UniProtKB/TrEMBL annotation:
The keyword DNA-binding applies. Pfam families: TetR_C_7, TetR_N. Residues 14-74 form the HTH tetR-type domain. The keyword Metal-binding does not apply. GO terms for molecular function: DNA-binding transcription factor activity; transcription cis-regulatory region binding. This is DNA-binding transcriptional regulator, AcrR family. InterPro entries: Homeodomain-like_sf, HTH-type_TetR-like_transc_reg, HTH_TetR, Tet_transcr_reg_TetR-rel_C_sf, TetR_C_Proteobacteria.
Length: 206
């Protein structure tokens, strides 16, 4: 007799997980990390505390999951950035990065981390290790692949990834933490990505 959960039970578990993450995100944004309890999250999500604790035994684990999910890139059906064409590959990566940084709630999530960091340094660790670093490493791997494919000469892919992502985020994202009315239009964002690609191509294209 199989002990594996049925498709129905897996679907129910996934629905409850999604409800918990949605409720927790809303409460964290409204009340801050310290001002949000697991009991309140369970209440808003419409699940029992036992169900919540089964999936997320601590508030830190729940925040880790929110950060991890917020940095996931939905590229199902999208082709991999071509390693043999540096300009095309960087353009695709640049636009995906913009979509990631401009997601609803991304700025607010960073503000929570910054505000709560003195009391809860683990939030910064979660944002860095669960969110930013996996994405950064994917860009570094692409640049290393472009180097191997002969389309680029990148001896230090980590440094090159920092340069590329920094050129984009310094215009698109970081000002939003300090300027509530920062909202560059689509053409300005497109230009920022294009100029970052031009700079990288001039420096690294083989």
């Amino acid at each position: 007799m199989s002990t594996e959960p049925s498709a129905y039970h897996r679907r129910v578990a996934e629905e409850k997980r999604a409800a918990i993450l949605k409720a927790a995100t809303g409460l964290f944004l409204a009340s801050g990390y310290d001002g949000t309890s697991l009991a309140k999250i369970a209440e808003v999500a419409g699940v029992s505390k036992a169900t919540l604790f089964k999936q997320f035994p601590t508030k830190a684990a729940l925040f880790d999951a929110i950060v991890t999910e917020s940095w996931q890139v939905d590229d199902a059906g999208s082709p991999e950035p071509p390693a043999e064409d540096l300009r095309a590959g960087l353009t695709a990566i640049g636009h995906r990065y913009v979509e990631l940084l401009t997601r609803p709630g991304m700025t607010a999530l960073f503000r929570i981390v910054i505000a709560e960091l003195p009391r809860f340094p683990e939030l910064g660790e979660a944002q860095f290790s669960r969110g930013k670093m996996p994405y950064f490493e994917s860009v570094s791997r692409y640049l290393a692949a472009a180097h191997s494919a002969g389309s680029a000469k990148v001896d230090a892919p980590d440094l090159a990834a920092t340069q590329f992502l920094g050129m984009i985020s310094n215009f698109v994202f970081w000002p939003t933490l300090l300027l509530t009315d920062w909202a560059p239009d689509r053409s300005a964002i497109e230009q920022a990505v294009d100029e970052a690609v031009n700079t990288m191509s001039a420096r690294y294209q083989a």
